[in-house]
Design a protein that fits this description.
This protein is α+β, with helices and mostly antiparallel strands. The protein is built from three helices and eleven strands; from the N terminus they run βααββαββββββββ. The strands form three sheets. The protein has a five-stranded antiparallel β-sheet. Strands 5-10-7-8 form a four-stranded antiparallel β-sheet, with no helix packed on it.
């Protein structure tokens, strides 16, 4: 991506077919105590960490994300490392303004698993402007991890589910 591009949007038709089973598995997972959670804000853990093979379709989606990131960054997949987490927003939830530039991240992404309308809007802050993106099921959005971003209030009784992803180089000094 060039510096002029704020966000790179990639629709994944193949991924959409995985979303139904993945959604059901994620919602079943929510209350299980073996999943690692972090970032408690406004009474909600924003991040839920699990293994890629623990849910149907999750491995395929993160592998597609890695392939797309390698293409965008013009790097071999083997030169990239990736971390990911689930984000489940219930009605009234927000994600506060933050960035992902506290480590060795070189690219961030979000993938939308379930997006009922009206869902929280993804807002990316860039050069004193706020760019708003409506989430779409089966869509990846890749962006610079240093850009502050947030999600507006989710206003639907059906949960909004996304996968957050960070990419770094395998040979970075922060390993």
């Amino acid at each position: 991506m060039t510096t002029k591009e704020v966000i790179q949007i990639i629709d994944c038709v193949e991924c959409r077919g995985l979303n139904g089973a993945l959604t059901r598995a994620i919602l079943d997972l929510e209350d299980q105590d073996y999943a690692r959670r972090s970032h408690l804000f406004h009474g909600r853990y924003e991040n839920l960490y699990i293994e890629a093979d623990s849910l149907p379709g999750l491995r395929q989606i993160v592998e597609i994300a890695l392939s797309e990131a390698a293409s965008l960054l013009q790097q071999a997949e083997s030169d990239l490392k990736m971390g990911f987490w689930l984000n489940i927003m219930q009605q009234g939830d927000v994600t506060t303004l933050h960035s992902h530039d506290d480590g060795d991240e070189i690219l961030s992404a979000v993938y939308y698993v379930q997006v009922p309308e009206p869902a929280g809007i993804f807002r990316l802050h860039h050069h004193r402007q706020v760019h708003e993106y409506i989430p779409v099921e089966g869509r990846f959005m890749f962006f610079d991890p240093a850009l502050p971003h947030e999600v507006s209030e989710h206003n639907n009784e059906v949960p909004r589910i996304s996968i957050g992803i960070n990419f770094g180089l395998t040979n970075s000094d922060d390993e």
